[in-house]
Amino acid sequence: MSETHSETVRYRDISSEVEGPDERQGIPGFLELTESWRQLRRHTGELLAMTSRRTELQRCRTFLRECVENEWMAKNGAEKIRLKNQKTAEGEERHGLELEEYEQMMSGPDSADLTALQNQETRGATELMRWTGMRISDAHKFNDSEIVGDEKGDGWNADFIQKKTKRRCVSPLPEHVVEMLKALPGQMKDGKKYFFTCTYAALRMRVDRLAERAQKDEPFAHTFSPHCLRHTFAIQHINVSTDVKLISKWLGHESVAVTLEHYGNWIKTTQMMAEDVSRDANAKMLAKVAAMRDQTKTNTDRTNSSATPLGTL
Questions:
Q1: Average pLDDT over the chain, rounded to whole?
Q2: Alpha-carbon distance 180 to 142, whole Å?
Q3: What is the rounded average pLDDT of the residues 128-151?
Q4: What are the backbone angles phi and psi of residue 159, rounded to the nearest 5°?
Q5: What residues are paired with 173 via a beta bridge?
Q6: 241-256 pLDDT, tens per residue?
Q7: Rounded to whole angstroms, what are the CA distances from 28 to 22, 35, 114?
Q8: Distance between CA atoms of 35 and 210, rounded to whole angstroms?
Q9: Which of 209, 286, 224 is nearest to 95 (CA)?
Q10: If I label 106, which of 3, 52, 294, 300 is the partner at 20 to 30 A Cα–Cα?
Q11: What is the pTM of this model?
Q12: CB neighbours (10 Å) of residue 157?
């Protein structure tokens, strides 16, 4: 328990809640969750963004409060933890996966520790996050009522309320992702089919481990977490010059300013690349025009030199 307490603010995530009465009964459920914290821990010295750290600390306090109420422990030490407001990864550049890295991840082997269905759910969640920009907290609770037809009537949108911001978000949902989700048995609750049957912590761990297996022979350029799939969605759209207003809308950001704050470096890089391409294209076109003018002048000179002067007739 002391290890869990001391490491609390360094863990990437813990379960958002103890989900259901079966998982609250006895110490085994508690040990399973604390083990998930260890598995989800970031590299030593790598800090979470301040907002995430506050959220995770509050989740830890809630869980340990549950432990005290069930007399599994005598005291909730997390209540005394205070976070210092220091520079974190929050203001640093975001990184997604390159297209080759994502293909490497999706072509990686299944987990031998999971059933075929559990592996199928893991890949379905990964595709959902990569192609819609969803946070994993939203992907975990995604259900069939949130798949709606688009305005043209020939495609699909993911229409859901974000867990973090409580705002409605509508994002294009590719056909192949819809087919993957519909192929999952899922679980029915309140007349809705929830596609992912495991806990939030388990789903996050499984996506992490899918990426780990994919990097066995060739590591990714940057440290992976499931949130990288959201960055991948945004950055790949930026790379093909999608309007940042649309990207902001699909991500469910409060304003375009938030999107620019998160991905300003990528937008600037893409703009510079576009400017370089434009300069190169203009240079080639100008060179071609100059060559055409030179050819025209040469032809004109030849015509003039071959013409007989009127005074000699």
A1: 80
A2: 13
A3: 96
A4: -120, 105
A5: 156
A6: 899 999 999 999 999 9
A7: 11, 11, 19
A8: 18
A9: 224
A10: 52
A11: 0.62
A12: 18
